């Protein structure tokens, strides 16, 4: 059985991706930070459907913990699946913060950088020795880094996600010698817990977003989770170095 590591899978896009990946017969090691109940829910959903999953704590903003996390991943793979390698990595964990450029503080900039760019960079580097040749990596970026999703207030967040897009292409180039494919997905506005459940707290922002979306609704986690699972699959074996916008045609 193949194994995927999915970070930030206690809710939203990560939770959906973990469930969708598991539904294709892949074992899942999912991570959580601050939402253990959500992680347990993800594991239970996968188990109830006949799959296998393990939840491990991880703060992707603390790169000094990555070596110990790699050891935990190796142990889980060995104990649960009797394997010493993983096949897939989904760098999904993140958070959103908004501020106009002139109001963006160094603290905000640095916290976004640690989680959204430095974290995936060095977590991938740390887990690479465990990855099989011919595997795949997916990075969750954002249409905030594309012209279609350019909105005031996201200069720091969008810059980090843009950096992750560039990293995706470099990893695809450098890891191609091992047959490892690397792609990213750019969600548009999606109904998740990001930014402290902003869509729940401010439902009035939803109609204007829907009005600008060609397919006429807000995105749901499964809209993106299914694409992540597909990109890891055999049907996408000839796709690498691509960023795929999954936004229902936002600003089309």
TrEMBL record:
Pfam families recorded: adh_short_C2
Gene Ontology MF term list: oxidoreductase activity
Alphabetic keyword roster: Oxidoreductase
Domain of life: Bacteria
Family (UniProt): Belongs to the short-chain dehydrogenases/reductases (SDR) family.
Name the record gives this protein: Short-chain alcohol dehydrogenase like protein
Native species: Cryptosporangium arvum DSM 44712
